[in-house]
Design a protein that fits this description.
By secondary structure, the protein is α/β, with parallel strands linked by helices. The chain has helices at residues 18-27, 55-64, 68-76, 86-89, 195-210; strands spanning 6-11, 30-35, 46-49, 81-84, 94-95, 109-113, 125-130, 132-133, 148-153, 155-159, 165-170, 174-181, 184-187.
C-alpha cells in the first residue's frame, strides 16, 4: 500500500550521508526512497541531493549513474528540490576544488576555497554558524532570524547573481550559504545535523513538496 506520507527521492550516488538525511526527512514526515538510477524519478513529489566529499567525484558519480541529466531536468521543470553541502555546490558552473570539471550550471557562478586571513578561522569550517536568510524564503518559515546551523566545508558557493542567494553566512568572508530559486533550494550547511532549526527546514520542504 502506498504511504500517505509525502514521497521523497533521496539521490544515492555513493557520496552522501544518506542514512542521517533519510532519518531526518522521515522525522519531518516524509516517506524516503533511495534512488541510484533515474528510472521512476517522476513518481516522487520531491528530490533531495545530499553530498559529502569532493566536487569532481560528485560530478563523475552522478554522471556514471545516468542521474545528472534527470536531476537537472527535474530542477529546470520547477519541481521541489533540495541540495545539501556538495549537493549545493554541484548546482554551479564549476569549483576551485576540481579545475576543468563542469558542474550542473543551474546557477551561474563558481565554488571558491576559504582563504581566511584570521588564523583563528580554521579550514574546513566545522561547527555552528549563523545564517542570515531572506525573509520570503519558504524553507525558513517558522525559523527565528539569524538561526544557527551546522557546517562542515572548505569551499563555498559564489553565485554570479544575488537573485539566487537565499541566505548568507560569515566566515572570514560573507558568502552564500543557501541557494533559492523557485522551488529549488540548496544549503551549504547540514539541516539533518542542525537540531530544531534543521528539522523545521526539512519539514518545510516536505510540506512544500506535498502541497
Amino acid at each position: 500500500m502506498m504511504s500517505d506520507r509525502t514521497q521523497i527521492a533521496m539521490i544515492d550516488y555513493g557520496m552522501g550521508n544518506v542514512h542521517s538525511v533519510s532519518k531526518a526527512l522521515e522525522a519531518a514526515g516524509a516517506a524516503v526512497t533511495w534512488l541510484s538510477e533515474p528510472a521512476g524519478l517522476d513518481r516522487f513529489a520531491g528530490v533531495v541531493l545530499p553530498g559529502v566529499g569532493s566536487f569532481g567525484d560528485g560530478v563523475r558519480e552522478l554522471g556514471a549513474r545516468g542521474l545528472s541529466g534527470p536531476v537537472c531536468d527535474w530542477i529546470r521543470r520547477g519541481r521541489p528540490f533540495l541540495g545539501i553541502c556538495v549537493g549545493m555546490q554541484l548546482l554551479l558552473d564549476g569549483s576551485d576544488e576540481a579545475p576543468g570539471v563542469r558542474g550542473f550550471g543551474i546557477c551561474r557562478g563558481t565554488v571558491k576555497r576559504f582563504t581566511p586571513s584570521d588564523p583563528a578561522l580554521k579550514v574546513p569550517q566545522m561547527g555552528w554558524n549563523e545564517v542570515d536568510a531572506r525573509e520570503q524564503c519558504p524553507l525558513f518559515a517558522g525559523i527565528p532570524p539569524r538561526s544557527h546551523f551546522y557546517f562542515v566545508h572548505s569551499y563555498y558557493a559564489e553565485p554570479a547573481g544575488r537573485d539566487v542567494v537565499g541566505g548568507e553566512t560569515e566566515y572570514g568572508v560573507k558568502y552564500c550559504s543557501f541557494l533559492w530559486q523557485g522551488r529549488m533550494f540548496a544549503s551549504q550547511f547540514h539541516p539533518e545535523k542542525s537540531q530544531t532549526a534543521g528539522l523545521r527546514m526539512l519539514r518545510n520542504f516536505v510540506d512544500l513538496a506535498g502541497a
